[in-house]
Amino acid sequence: MEAVLGLMLILLGVSHGVETHCDGRQDGAQCYGALGGSVDIQLMDSTSEISRYRLLTNSLVILFVRNNKVISNTIVHRSSFFPRNGKFRINNLSRNDSGDYTLQTFDSDGRSSGVRTLQLFIQAPVTSVLMVSECLSQGERRVSCSYEGGDSPQYSWTLDGRTLTDAELLSVNNEDDIITLKQHVSGHLVCSVRNNVSNVSKEEKISTCGVETYCDGRQDGAQCYGALGGTVNIQLMDRTSEIPIYKLLKNSSTILIVRNNIVLYNTIAHRSLFFLSNRTFRINNLSITDSGKYTFQTFDSDGRSSEMWTLQLFIQVIQCKLRPPTQPLDPTQPVL
To answer: What percent of the chain has pLDDT over 90?
Structure first.
């Protein structure tokens, strides 16, 4: 909620012009202003007693003050000088406002008493951030962060309010706008995009990705493996099979009945699908209780049993990476 509120406030600031502040009292200071926004440059102390001073940008005088009275201001239509605190404000900033600014001071006799310069850089603020995530084949999660507006953006990522660790990160690209998280990572992920005039964040609650496995259950006694929280696709028969009636049982309880290519019954329809086109049964969000013996029975058009075969489904906890499908998992060994 706090991240959302922060984003709203930042966007509100962008829509009305971002205001930045700069201490220009030190020679060589670097100041930043937001495109379309305002910048307050502290030129001197509020208690300064300087008879005359002028401000130049790229060798052109834009401000001249004598005895605390503004004598000239070439951009008075969008700027203000406040003698009481020594601040010069420029509004509605444009790219042309970037450059070197020189403050020259003089004594009461008009002799130079000091010169110092500052650099002003105008940047477009970041206005919004979009986060997109996707699960990869081995259960990792790739997350990308994109933005609108903004010059010279810098990215940072946090998970549950802290910096991501090597134990959670699989990879980061050179620009830091795409990261790949390891399989076990979950929580509140925040991508922040900032530059010198803005900082916008996007938050997303991420969960672990489910690993998807495949099993050929067309042979009697087949052994199938699924990852806890993942998905398993079980091929029950050939795609060209023309069987009027068939049903699937788990530990003697019927979970699926199909007649004339119409699914009549599916006790776990909220997290499973049967694909008539390829005779594949998919179970999502696997739990340990999905482990067990599955029996597939076929019947002729008169309802007489014609065939029956079984398979065993083992659900395992994924600790790191699932072995390739060509190397079936051993249910008696931990997954490495």
So the answer is: 61
